[in-house]
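User: Modeling request: complex.
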Amino acid sequence: MERRPTIIDVARTAGVSKSTVSLVLRNSPQVKEETRAAVREAMAGIGYVYNRSAANMRSANAGLIGLVINDLRNPFFTEFATSLQMALSARGYAAVVANTDEDPALQAQVVSAMIEHGVSAFIISPAYGDEQATFGPIARAGIPAMQVLRMVMPDTESFPFAAPDYLTGSRVATEHLLTTGAKRIAFVGGVEGRAVTNERMSGYLEALASAGVEPLVMSGRASRAFGREAAGRLAAEFAEADAALCFNDLVALGMLSGCAEIGRAVGSAFKIVGFDDIEDCAQVYPTLSTVRCDIAGFGESMAETLLAWLEEGILPPERTRTPVELIVRDSSRAGS
Amino acid sequence: MERRPTIIDVARTAGVSKSTVSLVLRNSPQVKEETRAAVREAMAGIGYVYNRSAANMRSANAGLIGLVINDLRNPFFTEFATSLQMALSARGYAAVVANTDEDPALQAQVVSAMIEHGVSAFIISPAYGDEQATFGPIARAGIPAMQVLRMVMPDTESFPFAAPDYLTGSRVATEHLLTTGAKRIAFVGGVEGRAVTNERMSGYLEALASAGVEPLVMSGRASRAFGREAAGRLAAEFAEADAALCFNDLVALGMLSGCAEIGRAVGSAFKIVGFDDIEDCAQVYPTLSTVRCDIAGFGESMAETLLAWLEEGILPPERTRTPVELIVRDSSRAGS
DNA sequence: CTGAAAGCGCTTACAG
DNA sequence: CTGAAAGCGCTTACAG
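Assistant: Request completed. Predicted assembly structure:
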């Protein structure tokens, strides 16, 4: 618990001035190779560790990125946050992360705390509600911030938005279900009125409209529990439904369990397609067809985009849509 | 993008000295109520935000906690990390979090980065291997650190350890399976030789020894994929097995899928008990019996323990075991 | 109860 | 290529 060594200690042991040590720390090319080696040796010798907070007081970039997520326990968001964090880490940044549990007040609070901690930029998958309380302080502090996965601020000039192309995904999935011979396709799950729900539903509505088929929407929470319950309700109230496009994989996995429970065979008589392609999809029985958003790749690309903004001033496009891909598995196999 | 206001600006607008502003910031009781109000008003007026890095340079506590997790995509660890982070946040701390993907080298790297960032304490669910590279620098920096969920450093005086009481959990679960009439119980999943595996297996071995029954161990990765495959292998190679205690819920859920795939009914002819009680257990069909570790509560209690150490110097016990509870569901119902 | 001064560990011009 | 000085925004004794 000694006082930690500083650049002054390093300078003394290496026999140079502290400015020189600072230059070595920042890999300046203007230090002689020999001197550089001596300094590094001194650092190792006395166990010097760089103090970023101190450095941050003079220059700007603290190397801290704030990662604020509406529902971190949901595997979809976990995957996103984890790949983003790892990509940042590989680039020398650390991530301060917070789960907001869909609570706008909590979100505003953690964002303020992160501003105090001096984060250099934000990636926010926002909760719905009271957007000003969160984005106001960020704007005032002049900190770059991207909204991802959900757009809550229309001002995408200040807060660029990026998300997978949900609309196309749901259209392609619906067309696929029609191709397999499904006559009555339900859209199951997703809280009514939310932007994400609307988007993931709109491709479905488009595809059905083109085919001249009536939609059948069963809104609800994006959870396994809802999916499970929905399987029963759908069978009871809309017996004619022979397929379901689910808001996300959790709902779809829940429906799979629900169908098992009521003895409904999935794949032949009843087809299910999920959304996101979380890991479980390939592991359940029957395996689950889904729309892959490559959320890990999305997280990595967000890290790139943000750092390009931060380091090189390359402003992200106002609205980015990343491609998605339909993955056909046993839950909606054409022949079966 | 203006220069952000400092306490000097606040002092000027409030007509006091900057020391007074500092006292107000730290809620010192020695400032007159009137002055305090004036200062707060000035802060709000000019949009002052506290700069913790600067504060940290003089005093100690940065209010940053490092949270280092071996497998953040695993729902068990996600739940732990999320509840811990939220508890810290509620107490005014921010969490810098990193996933190490079971890579000791990556772990050493992120830990060093966090030390540079000045984290005040660590909670580490460590990867196996090269422990010195991670814990050496922490010890040298004199930063409080707890190892949780897995013990990799025997020196628990320096690095206190805490985890749920796995041994009791697996013993109780095994006794339960014996009670339901199971004659041949397999232990499925868990990488051979690891401390966690040994612990989760030891209660099983104890219970079987007491009952005079032979163990049947099928080691492997702690994943759904392994569980699914194991279901088939178990049926093929050890047809007499009529129950399985799984290393964790992922393996158990995988076995559930695997049993569905090979047409083996779970609950009656074949019983399954998982470990951890992740959310899915209550949602799948049949619902999964499991050993609940209350990992959310565990996360919260770790936050308390760590902050008590940090703020009040209360050293955690060297080794803590938190209670677990058997949750019986349909996958191992006695009567069925 | 409030003010003036020093210092935390760095970086940044500016000299040499 | 290297050194001496000032300053980042706070807190901490120390006076008053």
